[in-house]
Amino acid sequence: MKIRKVTCNSFFLVLYLFLAVSICYVPHIVKSLLTAILFLLPFTFIVLNKEIAHKLAGKVCFFICIFFLFFFIQLLNARVSFSVFYIISSFVLAYTLLTQPFSIKYVKLGFYLLSSFYFLLLILGYPLDAYMNDSSRNLVSINLIVYVVVIYLLECKQNKSYSLVPSICLLLVSVSAVGRAGILCSLLLLFAYLIYRIANSKYLLFVILLLLLTFVLVFVDDILILYDNLFAKTRFAAEGLESSEREELINTYFSHLNLKTFLIGYDYSQNLLFKSYSFNPHNSFLRLHYYIGLLILPILYCFSKTLCRLFWKFDIFISLLFLVLLIRGFVDTIFFFDKYDFVIVAMVIMPFYNKVSPKNS
């Protein structure tokens, strides 16, 4: 019975992640349907695990208050969106992720299948966004980085050693997708992994440096050719880390802030610059302020407190993952009233559950 429960939980988690990815590839009318399914799918875990309903019952008032608070702000701003309902489903999925059993093997299998799809596109000579429907190639690295973080959260919960391969796959796909933010955050995630390993092994740094030096000396010519063919031709190399488009959007948003717009958020739906970008601010925090205004301040405080709590009292690696996700959210609209909010919620509430054992010592 327990094996069946683990299998079902793992299946629906992988299904959720795959449906989240598939939104990038389907027509707009199907996207709306998938969005509704992604909202409802986390409640499947309540059906499969009756104890979740009992444990969350005591927090119903809290959920209702949070939901109606955000809903009221959106109503006040005349910016009510269906996405506000993700508040409820995100809490359910985050709680399930931290308290219910999952098979990491099955979850990893889904990740490797998804990575294989992107590697196959590369082998066949197609760009990674070849089959996307009106979606940015940045979503390739976004989808994978969220998947990798889910794997690491499960490994942390089950006190298993963190896997290196998912981070390597993420970096390879991100470099191939040539998105600057994806490459940067993938490198940061891999760097976070190495920092964690070094912190737990005083000899690992020496071994890594020795292997890296040996690799560079042996394959120096191949590395230069690879750089010329891949990295040197990317926007990362051509334009650097700065993004003039994102900077312009941020500056425009802040230039329209006054007392009123600071309190309730600036409505950029009438702004021509934002309209030219299909009203995508390319910044999760700008969109969050657009929706809830001043209420962004307690959320930012919560994030900073979570970051400190994870780093000092829980798990260094998880805290670094949280930081990487926040950085990724700063350059793309992927969080806050969206399908991947459950990852952020899970990391915020993670230290409060006894079933999750800290690895710091």
TrEMBL record:
Protein name (Swiss-Prot/TrEMBL): O-antigen ligase domain-containing protein
Top-level taxon of origin: Bacteria
Cleavable signal peptide: none
Keywords: Membrane, Transmembrane, Transmembrane helix
Parts of the chain that traverse the membrane: 32-49, 56-74, 80-98, 110-128, 140-156, 168-196, 202-227, 286-303, 310-328
The organism of origin for this protein: Bacteroides stercorirosoris
